Amino acid sequence: MDIKKYLKDRKTLIDEALDQYLPKEDEYPPLIHQAMRYSLFAGGKRIRPILALASTETVGGKIDDVLPAACAIELIHTYSLIHDDLPSLDNDDLRRGKPTSHKKFSEAIAILSGDALLTYAFWLIAAKTKEKSLIPHIVKEIAASSGTLGMIGGQTVDILSSGKFVDSPTLEYIHTHKTGALIRACLRTGCILGGGSREELKKLSKFGKYIGLAFQIADDILDITGDEEEMGKRSGADLAAKKITYPAIYGLSESREKAKNLIEKGISLLDEFGQRAAPLREIARFIGERSY
Ligand code: GRG
């Protein structure tokens, strides 16, 4: 399959759905809706919702059934980027190739816009998911993965560890929670809404854990080797902030090897799904080799 075309087509589908779901720019009070849309449509890869859709297809489900929840995950991801860029966190000026939300609007509006995207995500799941009986299950999955047992937990330990020596289990905790938990939730959400079995859910969760960790290792590597223009953000930020990263502990070539092994382990879990898992296999390879 042509993975580049697949990712481009799926991104268009997600962007159109997000545009439909989100309040329009002129909806009162307009400034907050402009800020939400500004960050959301600044040009993300949409890899998380694309993974949720591909997970649904892997278990034989329909992508329309997962579209609201997949878009909700992208809203949560965008909120996390807005808050991560704030002066009190990473203090970044550039995101997705554009001035960060607090630079474009103000710190107050950036905080509110992140809050608004997070709360809107759960409204979207509750209001638009077709299979109503599955809503509590999906809310539980996504809330857990983005809260203190997932993304916020990882981010907290990341901040507390900055500039200190950390052991490899702590490093793995940071990466599997800060970034991996939401990616794993994409796989689980897609599987649950696609009608997957318990056994399929177990396999796809494990796949999500492996590729989620590989995604953040790749991000650490790109912070050193990546092209700023292609990535749409500053490189070298981790080093400047004395962040704990895989290359800082293992070096570049061992980090690359670790990411590659995780991708291979993940792909080997997909054997029983046959051709239906072709997109997931290719997305996993893309994550391992990505340059942005
Ligand atoms: C301040 C309330 C408060 C919360 C902060 C910021 C945060 C909690 C958690 C976020 C952790 C974080 C930013 C992890 C990094 C994840 C990551 C690798 C982001 C880049 O994702 P891509 O490459 O970006 O998918 P695009 O732009 O393509 O969507």
In words, what does this structure look like?
- The protein has 292 residues and is mostly helical.
- It has one domain (3-284): Farnesyl Diphosphate Synthase, CATH 1.10.600.10.
- The protein has helices at residues 3-21, 30-40, 47-58, 67-84, 101-104, 107-128, 135-146, 151-161, 168-193, 198-225, 228-231, 237-240, 246-250, 252-268, 278-289; strands at 94-95, 98-99.
- A two-stranded antiparallel sheet has the order 1-2.
- Helix 2 (30-40) crosses helix 6 (107-128) and helix 10 (198-225) runs parallel beside helix 15.
- The longest helix has 28 residues, at 198-225.
- Bound molecules: geranylgeranyl diphosphate (GRG).
Q: Could you give the topology of this structure?
A:
Layout: H1 3-21, H2 30-40, H3 47-58, H4 67-84, E1 94-95, E2 98-99, H5 101-104, H6 107-128, H7 135-146, H8 151-161, H9 168-193, H10 198-225, H11 228-231, H12 237-240, H13 246-250, H14 252-268, H15 278-289
Antiparallel strand pairs: 1-2
The chain binds geranylgeranyl diphosphate (GRG).
